[in-house]
Amino acid sequence: PPMDIAVRALQENAHRTGYEPVKGILPLRKAIARAHAERDGLHFELDNIVVGPGSKELIFLLMNVFNGDIILPSPAWVTYGPQATLSGSSSVLMELREEDGWRVTPEILAEVATQKCTKKNKLLIFCNPDNPTGATYSRDDLQALIPVIREHNIVVLSDEIYGFLEYSGEHHSLAELCPDRTIFSSGLSKWASSGGWRLGFHVFPNELSELCAGLTHAASHTYTSASAPIQYAAAEIYENVPVCIEYSRHCTRIMSAVASFVCSELSRCNLKFVPPCSGYYVYVDFEMMRPCLAKMGITSGDVLFMRIMEEADVALLAAAPSCLRPLGELTARLSFVDFNGAKALEASRCIPLSEKLPSDFVTRNCERAATGMQRLASWVTRTMGN
Length: 386
Prior knowledge:
By secondary structure, the protein is α/β, with parallel strands linked by helices. It has helices spanning 4-12, 26-40, 55-65, 80-87, 106-115, 139-151, 174-177, 209-220, 228-239, 241-268, 290-295, 301-312, 319-322, 341-348, 361-365, 367-385, and strands at residues 49-52, 69-74, 90-95, 122-127, 154-159, 182-187, 200-203, 272-273, 281-285, 317-318, 331-335. Helix 10 (241-268) packs parallel to helix 16 (367-385).
C-alpha cells in the first residue's frame, strides 16, 4: 500500500486543477534533488529535471527526439522494444548472457557498438536494477562500462525505477560515475507503491542540454504537464526522506524474503535462474524440461506457460518475444509481488529493522506468492516425473 503521508498529501491537493510548468513544479524538482542527494549521493541541477506522467512516457519521448541508434538489451522490459518501434527509431539488439548474470558487459556493449550500430549517436537503454532479471551492478561493473561508453559516443538512459529496492540497500548509478553521458530516470511507481499515480522524471546533465530541450518541447505538445495534484503530493513525499527510507526498507526486506523463498522453490525443482538482487522479478529458464515437453507436443514458451497457467494456476510471462528473446526459447519473467502488501508491511513493522524476518514470514504473510511458487515447483516436478 502507499505511505500514509502519500494518501493524505493527495487528498489535501485534490483541489489543484491548473496546468503546471512542463518540467514540473519547482517544489517537486527541489524535493527530488534533495531526496537523491541524501539517499544516494546524486546531485541534480533543478533546471535539468523533467517531470512527467510516469518515466515510461518520458522514455518514449526520449526515443522520439534522439537522433541515432537505440541499443536495446535482451532480455528487456516488455515496453522498450515496442516504444523503439513506435518512435520510428533505428534500434539494435544487445544479447545478454546468463553466465554474466544477465548484465551488460564491456565486451558485449563494444561488440554491438562496432558491429551492429551504423549511426554516430547511440542511446543505450540501461535498466539498473533490471526488469525482468532483477540484476544489479556493482561500482566496478559500472566503471568497466565507461571507457566503452565514451569511445563509442554512447548516451545512456539509466532506468533506475527500482533503485530504492535493492535488497542490500546499496545502489550504484552511472549518473554518479559517468554523469556527462547519463540521463537518470526514476519515479514513484515501484519504491513508493504508487504505479497508478503516473509520476516519473528524467535528469539530464548539462552536456546533454539539447536533448533535454527536445524532450521538454515534445512533452509540451503531448502530455503538457503531469497532473497537478499528483505533483504537489509527490513533493511532500520526497520531502519526507526519513519516512520514505523507513517505508522502503520494510518493503525491501519483505521482497528480499519473498525472493529467497521463490529461489528455494525454483531450486527444489531444478529450474535454472539467476537470483534477483532487487525488485520483484526473477528470470527463469525452463530449458532443462525441453525433452520432456517435446513428448507433450510443447515446443514454445507461449504454449508451455499457458499449460502451467491452466494446470497450476500460475501466470508467467513468456520472454519470447515479449522480453525480446529468440522465439522458441523457454524462458520467462516471474513476478512474485502477488500478495497482501498491507498485511506483510504491518507484520514487518512489528519486527525491528535491525533483526531478520522469521523463516516462516513469507508463508504466514505473503500466502498467495508462497502457494503459487509451491504449485509451480510441484507442477514441474510432477511433469518431469511422468
